[in-house]
């Protein structure tokens, strides 16, 4: 008999995976676990996680990230170690809703604003790490004005290359010394995912990879209008804004994602 899927049960039809402890239940998108969550539920998890001394990392996932995980086994496996994999792109939200799941879009820019705005009295201490020179400082100054209740304890800018062991140790020590328990990482995928995987081994904080969100909130890159965001058209706005950099992401990888999802949906179990 047809009905709402049971989340804490793995089925061939819904590909839902239950995780132990305080982890989120997930659903499968081309072999990548995506969390059943919302902006507010993710925020409440961050508050709870800040009370212990475990290092965690959070992936903000879109179609581009899903497609990169198809050809990068190391990246794919990191998704299974993540405490949370939020559905950023609307196609991932639609994939969850088509299975009857209570999933909501949880984009990096929206999550960051919500968390910083509601941080007062939660004990959250934020650290911004990413962007070009000066961007993290600019982001701190902007949030200090619009969310004065948020406790922003540090900022940093990584080099445009993998960090050396000494650099990893130095930035880890700085985050620990400043008491950061939520660290926002603003670099490109998959560099930020690999970096978070390393930092979470050293620092008892939750690392959240938000990519271009630093530029959105500083105004260096204009985000799509809300109506485009809600209708799954933010990709078109970004493509028109940066065609030379993003054409392959949206004109090659996105159609391939749609084709693979169709094959997954209609594949007959053997």
From TrEMBL:
**One Gene Ontology molecular-function label:** hexosyltransferase activity
Pfam families with a match to the protein in the record: Glyco_tran_WecG
Q: Which organism is it from?
A: Neoaquamicrobium microcysteis
Q: Which UniProt keywords apply?
A: Glycosyltransferase, Transferase
Q: What is this protein called?
A: WecB/TagA/CpsF family glycosyltransferase
Q: Which InterPro entries match?
A: WecG_TagA_CpsF
């Amino acid at each position: 008999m047809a009905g709402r899927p049971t989340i804490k049960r793995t089925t061939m039809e819904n590909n839902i995976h239950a995780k132990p402890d305080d982890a989120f239940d997930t659903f499968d998108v081309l072999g990548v676990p995506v969390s059943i969550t919302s902006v507010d539920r993710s925020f409440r998890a961050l508050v709870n996680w800040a009370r212990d001394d475990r290092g965690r990392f959070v992936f903000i996932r879109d179609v581009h990230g899903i497609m990169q995980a198809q050809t990068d086994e190391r990246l794919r496996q990191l998704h299974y170690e993540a405490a949370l994999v939020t559905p950023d792109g609307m196609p991932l939200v639609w994939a969850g809703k088509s299975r009857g799941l209570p999933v909501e879009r949880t984009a990096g820019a929206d999550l960051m604003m919500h968390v910083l705005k509601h941080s007062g009295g939660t004990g959250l201490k934020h650290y911004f790490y990413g962007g070009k020179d000066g961007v993290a400082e600019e982001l701190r100054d902007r949030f200090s004005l619009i969310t004065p209740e948020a406790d922003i304890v540090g900022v940093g800018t990584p080099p445009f290359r993998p960090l050396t062991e000494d650099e990893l140790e130095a930035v880890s020590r700085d985050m620990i010394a400043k008491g950061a328990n939520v660290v926002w990482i603003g670099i490109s995928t998959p560099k930020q995912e690999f970096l978070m995987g390393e930092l979470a081994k050293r620092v008892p904080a939750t690392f959240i990879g938000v990519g271009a969100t630093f530029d959105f909130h500083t105004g260096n890159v204009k985000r799509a209008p809300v109506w485009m965001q809600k209708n799954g058209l933010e990709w078109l706005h970004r493509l028109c804004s940066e065609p030379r950099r993003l054409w392959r992401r949206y004109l090659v990888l996105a159609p391939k994602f749609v084709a693979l999802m169709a094959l997954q949906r209609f594949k007959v179990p053997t």
